[in-house]
UniProtKB/TrEMBL annotation:
It comes from Roseiconus nitratireducens. SMART domains: S_TKc. SUPFAM superfamilies: Protein kinase-like (PK-like) (SSF56112). Residues 27-321 form the Protein kinase domain. InterPro entries: Kinase-like_dom_sf (IPR011009), Prot_kinase_dom (IPR000719). Coiled coil: none annotated. CDD domains: STKc_PknB_like. Gene3D superfamilies: Phosphorylase Kinase, domain 1 (3.30.200.20), Transferase(Phosphotransferase) domain 1 (1.10.510.10). One of its GO terms (molecular function) is ATP binding. PROSITE patterns: PROTEIN_KINASE_DOM. Keywords: ATP-binding, Kinase, Nucleotide-binding, Serine/threonine-protein kinase, Transferase. This is Serine/threonine protein kinase.
Amino acid sequence: MQQEPTIILSGTDPDLPRKVAPGIGRYSGLREIARGGNGVLKAGFDPVTGRTVAIKMLHVENRGVPNDRRRLLREARVTAQLQHPNTVPVYDIGNDLVHGVYFVMKRISGENLFEVLKQIARGNRDIAQAFPAARRVDALADACKALAYAHARGVIHRDVKPENIWLGNFGEVYLLDWGTAKVWGSMDDQTITRYDATRLRKAEEEQLQTLTGGGQRPGTPLYMSPEQIQGVRSIDERSDIFSAGVCLYELLAIREPFRGANIDETFRNIIHADVPPPSEKSPDRGIPPAADKVVMRAIQKDPSKRYQTMRELIDAITSFVPQLDQG
């Protein structure tokens, strides 16, 4: 588990540097702290503010790929504009001559929810005691607050999963990775003409093709909604509600509801298969009926049968949290 950096005099008392290098050259002591499919996350020290920051950039081999560059820039800008307690603050966005597009954000400590679930599934009692069901579900509810805020701003996340929910050492919860987000804009604005709406829809389709490489679907297979898998263009916040419901199922049962032997089977399960409620999937975990009811409504195949807003799902989740860990 990553620890919070210590505040020391060298970060508070020195005068401002006489010269500040442009781009990533501003930051010293760069070291890699995480690596993903196309990007790398590095920690560095900012001599101007005196704080340790996290810097996300593309792998060397991906820096010249337009789709990857655009996705990282989109993630940076969406994250920067969603200023909410459950999103990570963005300090700077730039285009370095050597490292390409990057963005600088708060360096967070703690662990992601996926790692917590993995350790619990492996029988780690210390982790299970540190992260009981109520704490895990509370963390999801906090992440859902970021989603509710994003939805109000016209943004659909499209990749809600435990790996993107970060648990801080001091109770913080952050929803990460807005790289596949769908941005609606202000379609309810009365000043938007029919031409504007058509143009925005066309731009959205072009944007989806660019960001996902054509036929690829944005999202992570285990947590995707049926409409995402089927390539529905007009997905809305109810898609995120489905993904959050899948997360909720896993947080309670410590098992994924739709996992198949391969991606195709997983997709078939999501679209067609009826799954048992989490209490039947994991009868030894003391999951209350109220939790089953919330989960099963959230993962309905038909979006009209789910919770219709993230706020409704949050209220439903918080209503059964006091019933958890009673066994």
